[in-house]
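hiii so um. not sure if this is the right channel but i have a protein structure encoded as tokens and i wanna go backwards to a sequence. like what aa goes where. can anyone help
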């Protein structure tokens, strides 16, 4: 049994290394992003990612936690389920049950009702449907900060848009597009915001 685990961990380590290299992430940057020391990254490259970090690393590498950690499956699943449930609680609080059900009914009424009743166990498929219905970036419900995403995203109505210069409208559309793809992150937004604030002082 121990030999099988050792072989499995080596496979997961190699897969973690391959995915990180394909993503173009530098090891030092990854360590900094995760708040771990470089020795942890070296160990993960040999043995696979430790279970507590597997969900976050998998989100960064756009893969499943089980691709990079052989002990991650149950931990990752319960962690993501908990995050999705907490985010859905926030959505209920923000919109109210009836209004949220109406927003989700664009999926279809039956699915919306099913989600409302069993949101503590949201599948990936259901989470993506909710994000689409609420115009959230793909994967937003799997992150603990859906509240920040909703509270910081500006609401531009048609009149506001018409008053904005064309270049600014294009920038807003580009940010929205890249956010939906998942390639524009909260870190990018923070850098852009600080640069904008410096420019207009």
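sure thing!! here u go:
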């Amino acid at each position: 049994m121990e030999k099988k685990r050792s072989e499995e961990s080596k496979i997961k380590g190699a897969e973690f290394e391959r995915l990180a290299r394909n993503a173009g992430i530098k090891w030092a940057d990854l360590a900094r992003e995760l708040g771990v020391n470089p020795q942890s990254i070296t160990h993960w490259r040999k043995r696979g990612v430790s279970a507590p970090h597997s969900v976050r690393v998998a989100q960064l590498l756009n893969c499943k936690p089980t691709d990079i950690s052989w002990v991650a499956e149950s931990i990752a699943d319960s962690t993501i389920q908990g995050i999705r449930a907490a985010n859905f609680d926030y959505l209920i609080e923000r919109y109210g049950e009836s209004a949220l059900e109406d927003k989700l009914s664009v999926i279809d009424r039956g699915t919306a009702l099913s989600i409302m009743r069993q949101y503590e166990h949201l599948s990936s498929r259901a989470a993506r449907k909710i994000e689409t219905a609420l115009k959230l970036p793909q994967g937003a419900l799997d992150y603990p900060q859906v509240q920040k995403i909703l509270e910081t995203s500006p609401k531009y109505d048609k009149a506001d848009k018409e008053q904005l210069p064309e270049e600014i409208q294009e920038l807003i559309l580009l940010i929205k597009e890249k956010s939906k793809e998942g390639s524009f992150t909260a870190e990018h937004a923070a850098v852009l915001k600080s640069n904008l604030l410096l420019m207009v002082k």
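oh and Confidence is low (pLDDT under 50) at residues 156-161.
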